[in-house]
Amino acid sequence: MSDDTYYHSFLNRDRIIHIVDDDPVMCEGLSVLFRLEGFQTMFSLEAAQFLASLERRRTDVAIVNLSIGGESGLPLLRRIKSMHNGTPVVMLANSPQLDAAVTAMKLGATDVVPKPIDSEHLLTIVRDALRRDVHLGAMQGGRRPVEVRGFSQLTPREREVLQLITNGQSNKEAGRELGISPRTIEVHRARVMEKLGAKNTADLMRIVLTS
């Protein structure tokens, strides 16, 4: 199975691309582009509208214009990154904006794409961002990284718990490292198992090791 087929058949179907641009035609056009690739899409014409939507529904990739309603899109980028939820943010540039583009990259943008948009280039950037999202980076201390399908369904805390469980830590040890109680670790573990379709801890390990 090719990479494109894999991401279309598995990743795209549950992934939400949220476009933030004050041009409704651009939003509609990009929505069609991503839906044709199997993604779910949403779009907002204002930064406030986008932030409000985050309270109701997660976003896997945000595509944000460097200029929204005559104002800079950089504050929105800062806000998204301050949430520490790992959401990749691709910035769009209506015109050459070198200083703003450099600042965006320093703030953690995945990339800056100029208009007119090269559709294949944008799709490649998004696919690469999602490919990295499937991979849990190695945590400090030399622990091995974990790869697992369905990772995007987990909350940041659940991802941390999964990493610690995979590295053989007990509920007590994981709780001590994360600063929460062993009982809370048990709750997160149960949610991880439910989302990944694991019947028990051994089954969870099997899913992780065979993904």
Overall shape: elongated
Helix-strand pattern? HEHEHEEEHEHEHEEHHHH
**Rounded Rg:** 19 Å
> Which range does the strand content fall in?
15-25%
Biggest pleated sheet:
5 strands, parallel
Number of domains: 2
Structural class: alpha/beta
Overall strand count: 9
How would you explain this protein's 3D organization?
This protein has helices at residues 3-11, 24-36, 47-54, 74-82, 98-106, 119-134, 156-166, 171-178, 182-196, 201-210; strands at 16-20, 40-44, 61-65, 67-68, 71-72, 89-93, 111-114, 135-136, 146-147. The chain is of the alpha/beta class and 211 residues long. The protein has two domains: 3-134, Rossmann fold, CATH 3.40.50; 137-210, Winged helix-like DNA-binding domain superfamily/Winged helix DNA-binding domain (Arc Repressor Mutant, subunit A, Orthogonal Bundle). The model is unreliable at 1-11 and 134-145 (pLDDT under 50). Keywords: DNA-binding, Transcription, Transcription regulation. Residues 147-211 form the HTH luxR-type domain.
What does the secondary structure layout of this molecule look like, with pairings?
Blueprint lengths: L2 H9 L4 E5 L3 H13 L3 E5 L2 H8 L6 E5 L1 E2 L2 E2 L1 H9 L6 E5 L4 H9 L4 E4 L4 H16 E2 L9 E2 L8 H11 L4 H8 L3 H15 L4 H10 L1
Parallel strand pairs: 1-2, 1-3, 3-6, 6-7
Antiparallel strand pairs: 4-5, 8-9
Helix pairs in contact: 7-9, 8-9
